[in-house]
């Protein structure tokens, strides 16, 4: 019957029918494209997107391009996203946002109003003691959001003012902690007063490590940037013998923790500082992160399940992190091989630090048992 009807059609009618079909397909295609572009534009401008990106609910462009085949990222970095992907993304959002925590209930009731805040918590040091590891580990917690880089506000850019500083902070919603890490804060004398001025309730995290290993780590980092660097032993002592320690040399000076802590304690009570063992952060990261979560009043969400020991790297690594969902370690600049240092030089440095370490144990009430 269909064939008969088809044979009866004149060539002209057939041509018109085909033309109408093509026009319909074209109009439908254009309409869908406009719809998708419009959804995309609205989504780009929406605070929801900023919040989702900043809270890592949404995957990054890089994650999307590697994991989702139907995504096109053009050279202006505008994301064209298919409806199915958008639906998938929003479903993911719903899963996160439907968490029973009060902050998400609030979020649902009042709409998303993420904003940037000055930090509540600072990782103030100590350089080369494991500060990056601490930050990477604690920011696994969904209620911790951290600035992406070391802002150096309190030591280098204080004159720029708090509004400048705030712009470096991540978006947070109520209930989330804003964190920043700049290890030089601990040893810069103006910083305690300035942090106190920002907020006397600021919580301070201090990672400390055997000052001798720390000095060698500091030296190793400097030597990696300068090919003609003198030997550690030549820099750590005056006159080429091991009798007089050069206390003016940065890597040695920074290890006298008690001296810097005194300054902080003029502005903050000891209860507002948490000292984290750099050694234990390597051997038992979950333990130290547990302490940090308690100190910050957070639910213990980051646990041993988040870590694995990577034998090649020789350090604990993450099964997933804020930035990546695959197992990975800290970068090459963390966990460098240290040069061989003369045992007599090490022994002399240990002797030098011993009284300062003991004073530091007394001040903190923690015996770090450094040799
Ligand atoms: P080394 O590179 O000398 O071994 P910071 O982040 O404060 O600069 O500290 C760097 C130190 O963090 C490294 O010094 C390393 O010993 C220590 N560290 C602690 N946990 C680590 C981890 N999981 N991966 C790599 N390094 C870690």
Structure in a nutshell:
With 371 residues, the protein is of the alpha/beta class.
Structure commentary:
The chain contains 17 helices and 13 strands. The chain has 371 residues and is α/β, with parallel strands linked by helices. It starts with a helix and ends in a 7-residue tail after the last helix. The chain is 48% helix and 12% strand. The site of adenosine-3'-5'-diphosphate (A3P) has 19 residues, from helix 7, helix 11, helix 15 and strand 13.
Described by its quaternary structure, the protein is single chain
What is the CA-CA span between the terminal residues?
Answer: 97 Å
Envelope shape? elongated
Count the DSSP helices.
17
Rg, Cα atoms, Å: 28 Å
Ligand identities: adenosine-3'-5'-diphosphate
Q: What's the number of extended β-strand segments?
A: 13
Helix content: 40-55%
User: Which strands sit side by side, in order, in the main sheet?
Assistant: 5-7-4-8-11
Give the mean pLDDT: 80
Order of helices and strands: HHHHEEHHEEHEHHEEHEHHEEHHEHHEEH
Strand content: 5-15%
Largest sheet: 5 strands, parallel
The helix-and-strand class reads alpha/beta
Which regions are unreliable across 5 or more consecutive residues at pLDDT < 50? 33-104
Outline the fold blueprint.
Blueprint: H1 2-8, H2 11-45, H3 47-54, H4 61-67, E1 72-73, E2 79-80, H5 83-97, H6 102-110, E3 115-116, E4 121-125, H7 131-138, E5 144-146, H8 153-156, H9 162-166, E6 171-172, E7 177-181, H10 191-198, E8 203-208, H11 211-225, H12 232-236, E9 237-238, E10 244-245, H13 250-253, H14 257-265, E11 273-277, H15 278-283, H16 285-295, E12 307-310, E13 315-318, H17 343-364
Parallel strand pairs: 4-7, 4-8, 5-7, 8-11
Antiparallel strand pairs: 1-2, 3-6, 9-10, 12-13
The structure holds adenosine-3'-5'-diphosphate.
């Amino acid at each position: 019957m269909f064939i008969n009807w088809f044979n009866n059609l004149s060539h002209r009618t057939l041509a018109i029918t085909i033309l109408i079909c093509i026009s319909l397909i074209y109009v439908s295609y254009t309409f869908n494209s406009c719809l998708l572009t419009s959804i995309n534009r609205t989504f780009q401008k929406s605070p929801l997107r900023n919040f989702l990106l900043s809270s890592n609910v949404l995957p990054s462009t890089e994650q999307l391009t590697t994991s989702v085949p139907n995504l096109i990222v053009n050279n202006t970095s505008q994301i064209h996203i298919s409806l199915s992907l958008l639906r998938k993304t929003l479903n993911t959002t719903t899963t996160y946002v439907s968490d029973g925590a009060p902050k998400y209930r609030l979020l649902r009731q009042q709409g998303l109003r993420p904003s940037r805040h000055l930090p509540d918590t600072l990782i103030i040091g100590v350089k080369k003691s494991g500060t990056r590891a601490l930050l990477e580990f604690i920011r696994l917690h969904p209620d911790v959001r951290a600035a992406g880089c070391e802002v150096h506000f309190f030591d280098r850019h204080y004159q720029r003012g708090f509004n400048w500083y705030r712009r470096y902070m991540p978006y947070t919603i109520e209930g989330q902690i804003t964190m920043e890490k700049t290890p030089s804060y601990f040893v810069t004398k103006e910083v305690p007063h300035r942090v106190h001025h920002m907020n006397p309730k600021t919580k301070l995290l201090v990672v400390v490590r055997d000052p001798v290993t720390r000095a060698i780590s500091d030296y190793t980092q400097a030597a990696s940037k300068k090919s003609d660097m003198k030997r550690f032993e030549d820099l750590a002592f005056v006159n080429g013998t091991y009798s007089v320690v050069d206390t003016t040399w940065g890597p040695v000076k920074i290890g006298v923790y008690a001296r810097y802590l005194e300054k902080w304690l003029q502005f903050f009570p000891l209860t507002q500082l948490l000292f984290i063992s750099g050694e234990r952060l390597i051997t038992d990261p979950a333990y130290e992160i547990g302490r940090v979560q308690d100190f910050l009043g957070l639910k213990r969400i980051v646990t041993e399940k988040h870590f694995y020991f990577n034998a090649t790297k020789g350090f604990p690594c993450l099964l997933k992190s804020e930035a990546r969902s695959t197992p990975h370690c800290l970068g090459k600049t963390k966990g460098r091989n240290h040069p061989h240092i003369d045992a007599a030089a090490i022994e002399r440095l240990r002797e030098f630090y011993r009284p300062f370490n003991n004073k530091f144990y007394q001040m903190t009430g923690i015996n770090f048992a450094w040799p």
